[in-house]
Known about the structure:
By secondary structure, this protein is mostly beta strands. It is 5% helix and 47% strand.
Amino acid sequence: MKNLKPSLFGRMLLLCAALLAAGTPYASATLTNYVGSCMTSSYPTITAALATTPAPNVVEVCPGTYAEQVVITKAVTLEGIFTSNADQVVITVPSGGLSVTTPCAAEGAPQVCAAGAGSITITNITVDGTGGVEPVGIAYNNASGTLNHVETRNQGSDGVGMYLVGATNTVTVENSSVYGFGAFGIFVTDSSGTGSAFTVKLEGNTLTPNPTADAAIWVREGKSVTVSGNLINGPSALSCGSGSGCGGIVVYTPVTGSITKNKVFGIGGSGGSGIYVGEGVGTISVTSNTVFDVSGDGIQINQTGVPVTGNTLMQVHNGINLECNVDSSVTSNTMTAIHDVALANVATSTVPVNYYYDAPTLYSTCP
C-alpha cells in the first residue's frame, strides 16, 4: 500500500498554511524613505517622506539644504546620511517663515516639532534658524526619543536651540552642538504640573550662547535630570542682568538628578553663575564640575541639602555661594584665584572643609 504520510517539507507547508489561516502575525519589516537627490525613488522634502502611508520607520536624508518646517507625530528615525564625500543635512527657515505648529503650539514656532506616541530619534541633522523670528530649533512635546550628533544654530536674539516638554516621557540629548541662541540653549519644562516621571539626560553636548542669553541649560518644574559632561563656552559679554537664576547651568525643582563633570567657561554679567541650583530642588547633587572665568558665583546654591563635592572653581567672583542655606555636604571643592569670597554666606559657624588657594577672603557668614 502506498505511504500517505506527508513528507517533512509537506508538513512544514501545512503548518505555514495553518498559521496564516489563524491570523498569526509576521514581524513587520522596516520601511525606509529617502529624501534628496542622492538616492533613486526619493522624496523632495522631509515632510513628504514622513507623510507616506504606511508611515516609515526610518527617513534617511541626503546631504543638502531643506527649507521647510518639519512636524513629526509618529515613531521614526530621522537621519542624515553620508554620500559623495558629504554628510551635512541642514534644515533652514522656509521662505514664508515659520508658523505656530499645533502639536508644539506651546513652544511657539519650532523648525522641527516632535510630538506624539513612540520614540523619535534625530541624528546627524543641523537646524539653522537664520532669518526666523525668535525661532525654536527643535521641540519635543511629550515625545520620547534621542537627539544624537544634532546641531542647532542661529536661533536669534530671543530664540531657543532645543525646547523639551514632558510628563512621563524620556528625552536624551547627547554629543550635540547648540550655539547662536539668544535666550536658552536647552530649555526643559513640564507639561503635567508634576513632571516626576519626565526623565531628561543631557550628556556630552557643547553649548555656546549669544551675549543676550539667559542660560545655556535651563531645567525647571519637577524633572528627573542628568546633566553630565557638557561644555558651556559663554562669550565674555554674556549679559545675565542683576538677578539670580541665570548663567551656564540653571536647575529648578527636579525631583532627582545630578550635575556632574561639566565644564563652564566665560559667563559674564553681574548676576550670572556658572551653576545655579534654585529653590524647591529635591535630591540633586553637584559634583566634579569645572567652572572658570565667571563674573558671578562659580556655584550658587539656593536650597538646603544639596551635596556640592569635588568641583574646581577658578577666576570667579565668589567660589560657592550658599545663600545662607544649611549644608554640611559642601566639601572637597578646590577654589583658586577667587576674586572676592571663596565660600560665601555660610549659615553656621562650622565652615565646611574645602581647598582654598589665592582668595582674599576664605569664607563669609550670613549677615
